[in-house]
TrEMBL record:
Transmembrane annotation, as ranges: none
Lineage per the UniProt record: unclassified sequences, metagenomes, ecological metagenomes
SUPFAM superfamilies in the cross-refs: 4Fe-4S ferredoxins, GlcG-like
Cofactor annotation: [4Fe-4S] cluster
Species of provenance: hydrothermal vent metagenome
Name of protein: Ferredoxin
GO molecular function: 4 iron, 4 sulfur cluster binding; electron transfer activity; metal ion binding
Record flagged with keyword Electron transport: yes
PANTHER family given in the database record: PROTEIN GLCG, SLR1406 PROTEIN
Residue ranges occupied by any 4Fe-4S ferredoxin-type domain in the UniProt entry: 5-36, 38-67
Amino acid sequence: MTSQFSAYVITEPCVGVKNGICLEVCPVDCIDSTDDDDQYFVDPEVCIACEQCALVCPMDAVYLDIEVPSYFKSYINRNADFYRANKGEPMPVPIDRALTMIQAGHARAMELDIAVSVSVVDEGGRLIAFGRMDRSRPMSVDISINKAYTAASFQVPTTDLGAVSGQSWFQSLIVSSQGKIIAVAGGLPVLGEPMVVGAVGVSGGTDEQDQECARAAVAAY
Ligand code: SF4
Ligand code: SF4
C-alpha cells in the first residue's frame, strides 16, 4: 500500500545518536525503533509529511523522500523495511462491514431528523464505500470523504486536531492536500487489531450530530 503523502526519511546522521527528539513532535506517532536498532525510522505509510521531525533534528538526519541526497538513498528502503519487518499488514474494513457502518450512520441521522453523507475509507484514506441520504446537502459528499481521509491519515478523531489546526505546519498540510485535511467533528478512525484499519466521515448535521452519526457507524464495525 502507498501513502497519499510523500514521507520523511531518517538517514545516517541519526545512527548512534538516536536521541528521540523527533518522537516528541510527530503528530501521528510514526517514528519508531527497537533496542536492537541504532537509529529511528519513519513509517512511510503513516507519515503526513508535516516536517516537524526535520525541523527539530539536531543532526540534520531527516529528509523528505524526494529530497534525500543520493548518498543516503538507501535509507528510504531502510525506513520502509523496518516497518515491513515489525508491523503487520493492516486489513482494511471489508465492504460488507463498510456498508453496514454506513447504514448505522444513516439510521442515527434519521433518529436525529437530519440527512447526512457517510464515507468509509481504508487506513490510507482511500474510499471503500459511500452513502448519501436523500435530502443531504451536495457539499456533504466531499466533506464526509475529507473527514474520513483526515481521521485515517492522523489516526485520531478529527475533533482531536483542533489544538493543532492553527499551527503553520497544519495550515501548510491543508494547502498541500488541496483541502482534504479538515479539522472538524465527524471523522473517526476505525480500530482493528492491533492497528487502525480505516476511518469514517460524516457530514450534513451540526458538529455534534455528525460526530454522533460517526460514532454509530464505528460502533457497527
Ligand atoms: S514528517 Fe511529520 S508525520 Fe512524518 S515523521 Fe516527521 S513529524 Fe512524523
Ligand atoms: S531527532 Fe534526529 S538524531 Fe534524534 S532520533 Fe530523531 S532523527 Fe535521530
